[in-house]
Amino acid sequence: MAEDPFHSFEQKYAFIGQQKEMILDWLEHCYIRDPVFDFGTISSIYYDTPALSSYDEKRNSDYLKSKVRLRWYENLKASDQDADVTCYLEVKRKYGTVRQKERIEVVISSKKLMDDPFSDQEILSLPSRTHELRCFPPGILVPILLIQYNRYRFMDSQSRSRIALDTDICCNRVNTVYFPLVPPVHLGMGVLEIKGIQTELPGSLNPIQTHLTKSAFSKYAQCLEHLANPLELRR
Predict the structure, then answer these.
(1) What are the residues whose beta carbons fall under 8 Å from the beta carbon of 233, sequence distance 6 or more?
(2) What is the pLDDT of residues 54-86, one digit of tens each?
(3) Does residue 1 form part of some domain?
(4) For 184-204, what is the mean pLDDT?
(5) What is the pLDDT of residues 89-103, one digit of tens each?
(6) Is 215 within a domain?
(7) 227 CB contacts (<8 Å, ≥6 apart)?
(8) CB 197 within 8 A of CB 8
(9) In this structure, is residue 44 part of a structural domain?
(10) Cα(46)–Cα(43) distance, rounded to whole angstroms?
(11) In whole angstroms, what is the distance from residue 126 CA to residue 72 CA?
């Protein structure tokens, strides 16, 4: 089993999407780009129970929260349908502001990820392996949403924190059993994530502090709320 545990504090700051370039310029000024993975597109399929228990944990601000997702870092192309894609089944837990993430590597064909990942049997069965990550969900898990975004990665040489700027967040594919006939969701917000031993905004970011709002930002919860609200309006 390939496992990637990581245990640290996690700070999140939301910002208006139009401020991306200004914030990115400041990060370039203050920090160094990640020497290995400085930029890329991240795709994640989020699993939840049919009753959306993981979403409820977030909405209710539970002290202990967990999420299960399938993540990959490649831009999939129609011409590469026969290619194998390295993915990661991840379990992320949060205890207040403390985070812990573990994952196992799985290989899935590009065709399965592009066609209909919400009905593919291999993708549907992956939650059965969460016990390998010491995760025992409260019920059956099903794939709910596919969320994609662009991530810029930086390193703070002083605090050794990892800094990520996530932009262009969108949910363009959903499990139509739960959300039929809904349009893609493009969030007008971005999020700055700081992962390390610090619990407050680094002083080097004070000049742009007024553009950042500390928030328990969840891409999954935000997209789910955008999808659910139109349905509520019809009632």
Answers:
(1) none
(2) 988 878 776 678 899 999 998 887 657 778 999
(3) no
(4) 91
(5) 999 988 776 778 899
(6) yes
(7) 145, 171, 174, 179, 182, 185
(8) yes
(9) yes
(10) 10
(11) 14
- pLDDT 10s digits, 103-112: 999 999 999 9
Its pTM surpasses 0.85: yes
Query: For residue 87, which amino acid is it?
Result: C
- State in Å, rounded, how far the first CA of the chain is from the last one: 47
In 3D space, the residue among 197, 225, 223 whose CA is nearest the CA of residue 11 turns out to be 197
- Nearest CA to 70 among 143, 157, 150? 143
Residue holding tokens 């040489």?
Answer: 157
> Range of 209's domain?
10-233
Total domains in the fold of the chain: 1
- Does 195 fall in a domain? yes
pLDDT in tens, 31-44: 999 999 999 999 99
